Each structure stands twice: as C-alpha cells, then as structure tokens.
Amino acid sequence: MVVLPETEEDIDAVMDYAVKAGVPLTPRAAGTNLTGSATGAGIIVDISRMNRLLEVNRDEQWA
C-alpha cells in the first residue's frame, strides 16, 4: 500500500491505523529508488507532496 499524505493529520491517521493493525511503515521522500530499497512489507508513506514552506524563523534559523 502507498499513502500520499498532504497534511500532518493525514500522517497521524496512517500512523494510528498502522499501530492498531500492527503494520510496518516505510517513510519516503525524494529519491530515485533505482535499487528498489524503498519497498517493503506494510505501508509506504510518500511525503513528497508535503513540500510547502509554512513558516520561516530567521532569528532561530529554522523553517
């Protein structure tokens, strides 16, 4: 199964389900996956759609 969450709430829901069902999660972001290493048993969580910058704090140097 592959899940494409778009919000933190989506990730929370997937994690809640996975914990209750005893299903492993494999997080994925950017990558070529030429070796096939991103696949595995359980749920693949592809966070590539979560690519928006929500806040920048220049004083504390984080985004």
Describe this entry's structure for a reader:
- The chain is of the alpha/beta class and 63 residues long.
- The protein is built from one helix and three strands.
- A three-stranded parallel sheet has the order 1-3-2, with helices on one face.
- It is globular, with a radius of gyration of 14 Å.
- The N and C termini lie far apart (30 Å).
- The model has no long low-confidence stretch (mean pLDDT 85).
Task: Give descriptors for this structure.
alpha/beta; about 15% strand
Major β-sheet annotation: 3 strands, parallel
Strand percentage, roughly?
15-25%
Number of strands: 3
- What would you call the quaternary organization? single chain
Output the number of helix runs. Answer: 1
Distance N to C terminus: 30 Å
Strand order of the largest sheet: 1-3-2
* Average pLDDT score: 85
Total discrete domains:
1
Gross morphology: globular
In angstroms, what is the radius of gyration? Answer: 14 Å
Helicity level, as a percent range? 10-25%
Low-confidence stretches: none
What class do helices, strands and sheet pairing give? alpha/beta
Element order: H for helix, E for strand? EHEE
